[in-house]
């Protein structure tokens, strides 16, 4: 995926080494959270997501990944206090991804699998249903692509699914792997469909930080 220079992106996959390394960079608070998760899958995805975030930010801030200041806001999003960076992470199965930018940013990684057709009505505004004809992909891929694009924006906005995906409108260029997403503000996105996953990263269009 080709992304603008103001964005740094990392993808990680679960391997025995990766998990051990991931656990070794967590802060004390993160370790406490980790042992509190009942599900092994949640423990793994949490560790991989934080590992990705700490690795990226350690390099951007030229510090040890363990020393990266990372806090959870009340809305669930992640803050990097005292730095100019915005951060978003996503995990899906054995994979996780993180992106940082000085612009508001959101990332979503989704596994492509069979989903009910009724999801279109949850994701798309009635005015957008024509996307189903225009975007030349099988139904399961369409659903996941539309979902990932909108969820990455809802994460950049920090509302998550407290805000309906239908509040956003998509314009998609499948060949370029790019999209414009509008709501109260306009967002740009790049996406890729690879290894049965969709990865989408969105940022606030026309923001000063994005043009630096
Ligand atoms: C944010 C949200 C869309 C993520 O959904 P998801 O597909 O399950 O998860 P992803 O792997 O893509 O992303 C998870 C990461 O998003 C981040 N996140 C959580 N809440 C967030 C928010 N409001 N805004 C931006 N990012 C958020 C976290 O870093 C989380 O990872 P972590 O818990 O390991 O730290 C979803 O959790 C949500 O809508 N939350 C807010 C509303 C809510 O709590 N609803 C209950 C379920 S509908």
Description of the structure:
There is one protein chain. The chain has 212 residues and is α+β, with helices and mostly antiparallel strands. It folds into 2 domains: 8-103, Ribosomal Protein L22, Chain A (Alpha-Beta Complex), CATH 3.90.470.20; 106-211, 4'-phosphopantetheinyl transferase domain (Ribosomal Protein L22, Chain A, Alpha-Beta Complex). It is 33% helix and 27% strand. It is built from 7 helices and 10 strands. It has helices at 16-24, 28-36, 40-61, 119-123, 131-134, 139-156, 208-211; strands at residues 8-13, 71-72, 78-79, 86-92, 95-101, 105-111, 169-173, 178-182, 186-194, 197-204. The chain has a 5-stranded antiparallel beta sheet, covered by helices on one side. A 3-stranded antiparallel beta sheet has the order 1-5-4, with helices on one face. A hairpin with a 2-residue loop joins strand 9 and strand 10. Helix 1 (16-24) packs across helix 3 (40-61). It binds coenzyme A (COA). Coenzyme A binds next to helix 3, strand 4 and helix 6. Coenzyme A is lined by residues 46, 49, 75-78, 88-91, 108, 151, 154-155, 158, 160-162.
Strand numbers in spatial order across the main sheet:
6-10-9-8-7
Q: Superfamily at the CATH H level of the largest domain?
A: 4'-phosphopantetheinyl transferase domain
Distinct ligand kinds: coenzyme A
Order of helices and strands: EHHHEEEEEHHHEEEEH
Please tally the β strands and state the result.
10
How would the global form be characterised? globular
Give me the Rg, rounded: 17 Å
How many discrete domains? Answer: 2
Q: Class by helix and strand content?
A: alpha+beta
Q: N-to-C terminal Cα separation, in Å?
A: 20 Å
Number of helices: 7
- Estimate percent helicity: 25-40%
Low-confidence stretches: none
Mean pLDDT: 94
Strand portion: 25-35%
The CATH architecture of the largest domain comes to Alpha-Beta Complex
| Main CATH class of the largest domain | Alpha Beta
Tell me the major beta sheet.
Answer: 5 strands, antiparallel
């Amino acid at each position: 995926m080709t992304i603008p220079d103001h964005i740094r992106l990392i993808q990680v996959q679960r391997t025995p080494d990766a998990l051990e390394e991931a656990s070794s960079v967590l802060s004390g608070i993160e370790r406490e959270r980790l042992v509190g998760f009942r599900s092994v899958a949640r423990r793994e995805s949490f560790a991989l997501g934080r590992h990705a975030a700490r690795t990226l930010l350690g390099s951007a801030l030229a510090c040890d990944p363990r020393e990266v200041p990372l806090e959870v806001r009340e809305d669930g999003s992640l803050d990097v206090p005292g730095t100019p960076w915005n951060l978003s992470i996503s995990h899906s199965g054995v994979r996780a991804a993180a992106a940082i930018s000085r612009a508001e940013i959101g990332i979503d990684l989704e596994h492509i699998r069979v989903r009910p057709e009724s999801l279109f009505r949850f994701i798309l505004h009635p005015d957008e249903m024509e996307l189903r004809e225009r975007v030349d992909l099988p139904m399961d891929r369409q659903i996941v692509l539309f979902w990932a694009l909108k969820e990455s924006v809802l994460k950049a906005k920090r509302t998550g699914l407290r805000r309906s995906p239908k509040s956003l409108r998509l314009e998609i260029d499948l060949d370029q792997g790019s999209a414009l997403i509008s709501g109260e503000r306009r967002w740009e996105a790049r996406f890729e469909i690879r290894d049965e996953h969709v990865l989408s990263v969105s940022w606030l269009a026309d923001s000063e930080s994005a043009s630096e």
